[in-house]
Design goal:
The complex is a heterodimer of chains A (about 250) and B (about 450). In chain A, a hairpin with a 2-residue loop joins strand 11 (about 215-220) and strand 12. Chain A has helices at about 40-50, 70-75, 95-110, 115-130, 150-160, 180-190, 205-210, 230-240, 240-250, and strands spanning about 1-10, 15-25, 30-35, 55-60, 65, 80-85, 90-95, 140, 165-170, 195-200, 215-220, 225-230. Chain A has nine helices and twelve strands. Chain A is α/β, with parallel strands linked by helices. Chain A has a domain at about 1-90 and about 165-250: Rossmann fold (3-Layer(aba) Sandwich). In chain A, the strands form three sheets. A six-stranded mixed beta sheet of chain A has the order 6-9-10-3-11-12, sandwiched between helices. By secondary structure, chain B is α/β, with parallel strands linked by helices. Chain B has one domain (about 10-385). In chain B, about 25% of the residues lie in helices and about 35% in strands. Chain B has ten helices and 21 strands. In chain B, the strands form two sheets. In chain B, strands 1, 4, 5, 7, 8, 10, 12, 14, 16, 18 and 20 form an eleven-stranded mixed beta sheet that branches. In chain B, strands 3-2-6-9-11-13-15-17-19-21 form a ten-stranded mixed beta sheet, covered by helices on one side. In chain B, strand 2 (about 90-95) and strand 3 form a beta hairpin. In chain B, helix 2 runs antiparallel to helix 7 (about 145-150). The longest helix of chain B is centred in the N-terminal third of the chain and has 17 residues, at about 30-45. The N and C termini of chain B lie far apart (about 60 Å). The chains are: A alpha/beta (about 250), B alpha/beta (about 450). At the A-B interface, helix 2, strand 7, helix 3 and strand 8 of A face helix 8 and helix 9 of B. Bound molecules: adenosine-5'-diphosphate and magnesium ion.
Chain lengths: ~250, ~450
C-alpha cells in the first residue's frame, strides 16, 4: 500500500530524513517510535503533502501512485488521513461543515453520491457517541477552544467519518488520560480491517497495550534503525533508545 | 464665477439646470440653503491629498468624470433589484432609482402606529418648515465639501420618524439603485432619521449599482437618537464595479441611546465613507461593525469617528477588510473629551491581504483628553493561515474551497456581530452573492 524508499528530506537547510525505508501492506498496523526531534512528524507531514520540505532523494508510492507529486487534497481523496500531532484551530469554520465538506469531496472523487444533511448528521452523531464526544462540539469552530483531549478525539472522529485506507496517527495518544486513551484506541481499532492500514507515531508503549501493532520501528538519526514486533516496544519502554543507536553505530 | 476650478464648474453649470428643472414654489430658505451650499462647494472645491483626511484617497478620478445632475426620472426593472431586497418581511421598502423615488418599486405606505416614513421630496412639498432645522448643516460638519454638494442638490431622500416609546420589530429598507446612463449622473440622496425617547428601530440602507452604472452616489444620512433610543443600521454598498460612492453618516446620541452600525462595502470603483457618531450624553453606546471587500483596481476608503463627549459612554468598533487588489484605506478616530470620564472605547481593524498588488493603509487614532478611561485600539494586516489551509486540504478540500472557507470565516466574525437575526442572514447572503464573482467564498 505504502512504499517509502531511501527518503531524504530537509527543512530550513537541515537534513532531517536521511535514507528512510518503510513498507506498509493493507491490513497491517505499524508503530513508529523514536526520540523527540527525530523526524517522526516531518515524515507524517511529508506523506500528507505539507509544503516546506525539500525532498533531496528517494521515492514514495501509495497504492501504486507517485505520492510526492500529488496535492494534499488528492492524497486525502485517495484515502490517506493524517491525525495531526497539533490539530489546527480554525476560528469561524464550523466543525460539522468541515466534516461534511471533506466527506462529500471524498465521495465525489469516488463517483459516489453526496449524502444529504440529515443523513450526514445522523452518521456523525453515531460516530461521536463512539468517541464519547459532546454533540455541542459539532456546532463549534474547528478545534477552537477545544481541550487537548477534545482535539485528539476530534481528529479520530474525522477519521471514523472519512474511513481512510491509510491512517497516519501522529502522537494521537499524547496528552490523553487513561479513559480518553481507551476511547481513542477503540476508535482506531474500529477502523482496522484487511483493506486498511494504520501507521501510528507514538512515544509510549501504553497506546500499544490497546492497539496491538504488527510491526514496531525505531526512527532515529533520520532513518528506521530497527524494526521488530510488539516486543520491541516493550524493550524500548524498558531500555530507552540509546542501545538502538549504539547497535546501529556498531 | 471667476476663480472657480475646472473640476467644480460642471456642478455649477449643472446647478442652473437643476434649479430651473425644480417645480417652482420652493420656500425661499430652501433655495438660499442650496445656493449657499453650492457657493461653499465651488469656492472650496474637491479635497486634495494635502488634507490629512484625504492623504490616501485622491479625488482626481472623480473630478475627471463631470457627473451631471439627475433631472429626469429613470427606471429600473423590478427583477434587477430583487437580489438586494430584504426578503424577510420589512415594515416598508422605499426604492429610489438614480436618486428619485420609484413608487412602483416601493411598498405601500407604512401603517404602523408611531412610525412616520416619507420621501424627502414629499416632506419638502407638504411640510418643509418643519425640516428646516434638520437640513441646516450642523456646526463642525458644514465644512465637508460632499455634504455641501449634497445640500446644493437636495431634492429627494427619506424622512423617518419614530415616536417615543415605539418599538419596531421589522426593519425598514431603503434601496438606492444606480442605473446605466449615457452620461453618468450624480445623485445626492438625503436621509433623516429621528428616534424619539425609548424608540427602537432597524434600518437597512442599500446601494445597488446595476450593470454598467457609472454614476456618483453622494448620500448623507443624519441620525438623531433621543434618550434610550436604539437603532440597528445596516448599510450595504453594492455599487457596480464602475460606480462612485460617497457616504456620510452622522449620528447624534442622547442619554443611554444605542447605535449599532453594520457597514458592508462590497462594490464600487471608488468609495469613500465617513461614519461619525457623537455620544453627547452619559451611557450612550455606539457599536461600529464594518467589512470591506476590495479587489481589482478598486479603491475603498472608510473613515470613522466616535466622539465621546460625556462620561460613561461606550464604543466598540471592529472593521475588517478582505483585500485582493486595489487599495483599501481605514482611518478610525476615537476622541475622548476632557470631561468624558469612565469612557470605554475599543477599536480594531484587521485586514486580510490576498495579493501583492493590493495596498492597505490603516490608521487608528486615539485622542484622549480625559483621565480614568479605558481605551484600546489595534490594527493588523495578515495573510491566510498556511497551517489552516494545509489542514483543510489534508481533509480533501481543494485549495480554492479551503481559501474561500478561511476568507468567509474572517468576514463572518463581523457579520456575527449583527444583532437582528434576519439582518445577519441578509448580510451573509449579500456577502456570498457579491463575492461569488470576485473570490470563491464559502460560509460555513
Ligand atoms: N519548519 C521547520 N523549520 C526548521 N526546523 C524544523 C521544522 N520542522 C521540523 N524541524 C526540525 O526537524 C526536526 C524533526 O522534527 P519533528 O519531525 O517534529 O520531530 P518528532 O516529531 O520526531 O519529534 C527537529 O529538529 C525540528 O526542530
Ligand atoms: Mg512530532
Amino acid at each position: 500500500m505504502l512504499s517509502i524508499k531511501n527518503l531524504h528530506a530537509r527543512v530550513a537547510g537541515k537534513d532531517i530524513l536521511k535514507g528512510l525505508d518503510l513498507e506498509v501492506q493493507a491490513g497491517e498496523t505499524h508503530a513508529i517510535m523514536g526520540p523527540n526531534g527525530s523526524g517522526k512528524s516531518t515524515l507524517a507531514h511529508i506523506l500528507a503533502g505539507r509544503e516546506g520540505y525539500e525532498i533531496t532523494h528517494g521515492s514514495v508510492t501509495y497504492l501504486g501512485m507517485e505520492l510526492l507529486t500529488m496535492a494534499p487534497e488528492e492524497r486525502a481523496r485517495e484515502g490517506m488521513f493524517l491525525a495531526f500531532q497539533y490539530p489546527v484551530e480554525i476560528p469561524g469554520v464550523n466543525n460539522v461543515y468541515l466534516l461534511k465538506a471533506a466527506y462529500n469531496a471524498i465521495r465525489k472523487h469516488r463517483g459516489e453520491e453526496q449524502l444529504d444533511a440529515v443523513d450526514f448528521l445522523a452518521l456523525v452523531k453515531a460516530k461521536m457517541q463512539l468517541m464519547e464526544m459532546d454533540a455541542s462540539l459539532l456546532s463549534r469552530a474547528v478545534n477552537e477552544g477545544f481541550s487537548g483531549g477534545e482535539k485528539k478525539r476530534n481528529e479520530i472522529l474525522q477519521m471514523l467519518v472519512l474511513e481512510p485506507k491509510l491512517a497516519l496517527l501522529d502522537e494521537t495518544d499524547s496528552g490523553l488520560d487513561i479513559d480518553a486513551l481507551k476511547v481513542v484506541a477503540s476508535g482506531i481499532n474500529r477502523l482496522r480491517s484487511p483493506e486498511r492500514a494504520v501507521v501510528m507515531v507514538t512515544h509510549y508503549q501504553r497506546l500499544l497495550d490497546y492497539i496491538e501493532p504488527d510491526f514496531v520501528h525505531v526512527l532515529a538519526g533520520g532513518r528506521i534503525l530497527k524494526s521488530g514486533d510488539k516486543s520491541l516496544a516493550v524493550e524500548l519502554e524498558r531500555r530507552g533508545y540509546d542501545w538502538v543507536l549504539a547497535e546501529a553505530a556498531a | 464665477m471667476t476663480g472657480m476650478s475646472d473640476a467644480v464648474r460642471p456642478y455649477a453649470e449643472g446647478y442652473k439646470d437643476f434649479e430651473s428643472a425644480l417645480a417652482c414654489g420652493a420656500p425661499p430658505w430652501l433655495t438660499a440653503l442650496r445656493r449657499e451650499a453650492l457657493a461653499r462647494f465651488t469656492s472650496g472645491g474637491f479635497p486634495g491629498e494635502r488634507e490629512e483626511d484625504w492623504k490616501y484617497t485622491s479625488t482626481r478620478s472623480l473630478q475627471q468624470r463631470a457627473f451631471i445632475p439627475a433631472l429626469a426620472a429613470s427606471s429600473a426593472a423590478a427583477v434587477a433589484i430583487e437580489p438586494a431586497r430584504l426578503r424577510e418581511t420589512p415594515a416598508c421598502t422605499l426604492v429610489f432609482v438614480d436618486g428619485r423615488h420609484a413608487p412602483a418599486l416601493s411598498t405601500a405606505e407604512s401603517t404602523i402606529n408611531g412610525l412616520h416614513v416619507n420621501t424627502l421630496a414629499a416632506a419638502l412639498t407638504h411640510d418643509a418648515a418643519r425640516l428646516e432645522s434638520y437640513l441646516v448643516p450642523e456646526p463642525g460638519w458644514s465644512a465637508d465639501p460632499f455634504i455641501a454638494l449634497n445640500t446644493a442638490f437636495l431634492r429627494d431622500g427619506v424622512v423617518i420618524e419614530v415616536d417615543a416609546g415605539i418599538r419596531l420589530a421589522q426593519p425598514l429598507q431603503l434601496l438606492f439603485v444606480s442605473t446605466r446612463q449615457a452620461h453618468p449622473l450624480a445623485c445626492h440622496p438625503r436621509i433623516l432619521v429621528r428616534l424619539g425617547a425609548g424608540a427602537h428601530g432597524v434600518l437597512v440602507e442599500t446601494y445597488l449599482g446595476l450593470e454598467g452604472a457609472a454614476n456618483l452616489t453622494n448620500s448623507h444620512t443624519q441620525i438623531a437618537l433621543e434618550d434610550g433610543a436604539c437603532l440597528e443600521h445596516l448599510r450595504l454598498q453594492r455599487e457596480s464595479p464602475e460606480g462612485f460612492h460617497v457616504g456620510r453618516v452622522h449620528v447624534t446620541q442622547q442619554h443611554a441611546s444605542r447605535y449599532l452600525s453594520n457597514n458592508l462595502d462590497l462594490g464600487g470603483l471608488w468609495v469613500r465613507n465617513d461614519l461619525h457618531a457623537r455620544l453627547q450624553a452619559a451611557e450612550a453606546t455606539a457599536v461600529f461593525n464594518g467589512l470591506y471587500v476590495v479587489n481589482a483596481h478598486r479603491h475603498v476608503d472608510n473613515h470613522t469617528r466616535i466622539d465621546h463627549l460625556a462620561p460613561h459612554t461606550r464604543s466598540d468598533e471592529l472593521y475588517r477588510g478582505i483585500v485582493g487588489g486595489g487599495r483599501a484605506v481605514f482611518n478610525g478616530k476615537v476622541v475622548v473629551a476632557k470631561h468624558a470620564i469612565k469612557t470605554d472605547a475599543s477599536q480594531s481593524n484587521d485586514n486580510l491581504l490576498l495579493s501583492r498588488q493590493a495596498e492597505i493603509d490603516t490608521k487608528p487614532e486615539l485622542e484622549i483628553y480625559a483621565d480614568d478611561v479605558k481605551c484600546s485600539h489595534g490594527a493588523t494586516i495578515g495573510q491566510l493561515d498556511e497551517q489552516a489551509l494545509f489542514y483543510l486540504r489534508s481533509r480533501g478540500l481543494d485549495p480554492e474551497t479551503a481559501r474561500g472557507l478561511l476568507i468567509g470565516a474572517f468576514a463572518v466574525t463581523v457579520l456575527d456581530r449583527i444583532s437582528v437575526p434576519e439582518l445577519r442572514v441578509f448580510a451573509r447572503r449579500q456577502l456570498s452573492h457579491a463575492l461569488a464573482s470576485q473570490v470563491v467564498i464559502e460560509l460555513s
